[in-house]
Design brief:
alpha/beta; Aminopeptidase; Alpha-Beta Plaits; 2 domains; eight-stranded mixed sheet; four-stranded antiparallel sheet; binds nickel (II) ion
Amino acid sequence: MSMSDTFTERLIRCRRELHTHPELSNQEFATTEKITAWLREADIRIVPLNLATGVVAEIGLQKSPIIALRADIDALPIQELSGVPFSSRHAGVMHACGHDVHTSVMLGAALLLKAREADLPGTVRIFFQPAEENFNGACHLIAAGALDNVSAVFGMHNAPELPLGTFATRPGAFYAHIDRFQITVTGKGAHAAKPEQGIDTIVTASQIVNALQTLPSRNFSSLESLVVSVTRIQGGNTWNVLPQTVELEGTVRTHNLKVREKIPETLTRVIDGVASAMGAEATLNWYPGPPAVVNTPFWAEFSQHVATGVGYQVQEAELQMGGEDFSLYLQQVPGTFVSIGSASEFGLHHPRFNPNEQAIAPAAAYFAKLADEALGALVQQQAAAQVASVD
Ligand code: NI
């Protein structure tokens, strides 16, 4: 997988430019301008969509079929501590998830595809999607029409735990359903010395936290992937008063839609039961997040095959309990999401995250090839379907 030095260097320069000037979700204005300028410089056409941030480009002289490649472009509210010379100049903001890498990869794929535009058997649409970190960028792009007439969609995340030159994906469920809950426990405030005159929300909330541990272990099969975590508990403001209310917040993650759908009612039963036993009341607010990433088996296998062909070490990806709003595209069109090794000592969302930039150019070449071959496969499928319908 040797790439020309100038191509590799160009993509690394772009990545560093993005890395030095990271922007948070839905605020990627300068990032969008830069990407647009790089695309225009290469004479790549921009799809006119009504987007506040993010940009969609197209390459190809044949109108159909269309496949899409997606990069995310936003950064995180983290103060960078990596020590690299091109560190973030925006205080408290960092590309700590490597979306600068993803953007450079798909920009590189765009450049390579542009060089053979006349030979492409269809169109490749490239999404530079904003706001992945807060899970609302994909729905903006879909609402703007980015996914219209797309037959297959592909995306990547860099994987710091995988060595350079490693590729991983899996058919079916990959990333989890990501849901958030808030529970408000209401009792009756009282003097700390006279708890019998009140209804203690601190004790009730503590018992709810414990009872929630039985949600996965006693309500669902042990073979299901299911995590329930309480991440915030807030109540009271001094040492000698029992507070009237306590608030709990947390997240539920699973890969199984049937499990996901049963969680709110099970959660309600548990918190109602515990609260009423204590004479208190508990209310649940449920905030559904992005659904699980479910790869289409055909395209997962296809992407692995192409990866093997260009020299990647290909392995079956492990299930992820994290989330990805790429799932919203996969709910509407087939496709696959993949991991590419970026060999960082520190993981995603760590202030010292430092992916190996040598992952960029080979990944760009890979996605250009994948796009080209996917279009070829779609053209063949359509031709075969036409023959069948004539028969
Ligand atoms: Ni990410």
